[in-house]
Amino acid sequence: MKEHIVLRVVAAFIIPFIMIAAFYVQLHGEMTPGGGFQAGVVMAASFILYALVFGLDRLTKVVSATALRKLAAAGVLIYGITGTFSFAADAYYLDYSFLLPTATQGQVLGIILIEAGVGLTVFSVMLLLFHSFADYADQMKGK
Predict the structure, then answer these.
(1) Mind listing the pLDDT tens digit for each residue in 15-52?
(2) 3-state secondary structure 36-52
(3) How far apart are CA 23 and CA 40, in angstroms?
């Protein structure tokens, strides 16, 4: 798409705003509609837009499939470790009211950590799916 200068300029302008929107949805997920899943999808969409406009090769230079696999695993670990902290305090799984001095603060912190793990995993898996489909399409074209 090197010949589509307007598309490249508009995409370069709008991608940071899409990422900011994803961070907003992530950070306000425990109080408003949104959270980790929605933020992960929106963030992945910004990277997919980047790949569609500038090429899959440039996206791979920004974030490789190996890095995405590690990020997905890290997100699952964040979720799992946050949930199992409650076992150490003799509480139910995903009961994080003991994390901070007051139960409310503990719940807020726990939700933020859980949503971060979900967001990271969803972002990584969505990009891995796109990467896999795009690689397959390139192979079918004979590239």
Answers:
(1) 999 999 999 999 887 777 788 999 999 999 999 999 99
(2) HHHHHHHHHHHHHHHHH
(3) 9
Using the structure block, give the residue that is written with the tokens 């490249």. Answer: 8
Domain that holds residue 87: 5-141
Render pLDDT for 93-124 as a digit per residue (tens, 0 to 9): 888 887 788 888 888 888 899 999 999 999 99
DSSP string, 98-133: TSSSSHHHHHHHHHHHHHHHHHHHHHHHHHHHHHHH
Q: 């791979």: which residue's tokens?
A: 60
d(CA 87, CA 91): 5
Pairwise CA distance, residues 28 & 40, whole Å: 13
Q: How many structural domains does the chain have?
A: 1
Matching residue, tokens 């699952």: 76
Prediction pTM value = 0.87
